[in-house]
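Could you join me in thinking about how sequence relates to backbone shape in a protein? Label the sequence line and the structure token line clearly, so we can match residues to local backbone shapes. Once you have written the record down, we can walk along the chain together.
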Amino acid sequence: MAVDAARSEEGFTSARATRVMVAACRTAGLDDTGARLIRLGENALFRLASAPVIVRVARGEEWLRTACTEVAVSRWLAGEEFPAARIVEDLEQPLLIEGHPVTFWHQIVEGDRKATYGELGGILRHLHSLKVPTGLELPSFDPFDKQELRMDRAVIPEDDKVFLRKRWRELRDKYDELRFETPKGPVHGDAHVQNLMVDDQGQVLLIDFEAFCYDHPEWDLMVTAVEHHSLGWQTDEQYADFVAAYGRDLYDWRGYETLRGLQEFGMTTWLMQNVQEDEKTAAEYRRRIAGLRNDDAPRDWRPW
């Protein structure tokens, strides 16, 4: 349905996402009583108390095609018996509520440990070995697809927007010069260790297919490479486990610095969407934008 002007001006806040979640549950015949917001990022994620279901609310109607791709990817991976999150099959998906695509996922009952970087490397190697079936239409990886929209809508100082737009143009020029030597295949598109979950049976599962695409595997390797080499978020041992499991260290590739710039830019614009939520988020955004303004400065960014 169309979004009226007043609602469109509200922005994507936790309150708005909650209202959409409630309406979506009622449309789907689910009980929203006791539902809890567990994450507000590119999407809002809610855990239902009435059923083992996660409700995923996207930011706007621009993400409808993406939501359709997520549903299709989940069905394909299920058919491949690939360890990954599963949609709730007996519900119409996605719903469009007040201009927000909504999808429903089986809740993963977490075990008593987190996934390791070695497991991330292994699951990416498995994913990249799969053959995308005829009929599953996947986009190419586009590191710029949401950036302009984020910059237009973010509640940040105008000086920051001017800087980010300038950096955006510079990165586009560098991106145009990239040359890949690897074949294309299925790519997760946001392959960090937080997008793995370990269930109560000890199985490691891949989640979050929003950026899933058909492209070069370097896009999946850049996330952990940047987190280690630029941000220092893993120990040398953890990163070595990742490289050993996958079989490649992206840091040795000549295109790494361009991918580093793209990844850091994306991490900053992703976070800036929620600066209005609380001071902790706003403070981390300020830390990241300061880092972008000085490429040679140490990164004291914090995982989010």
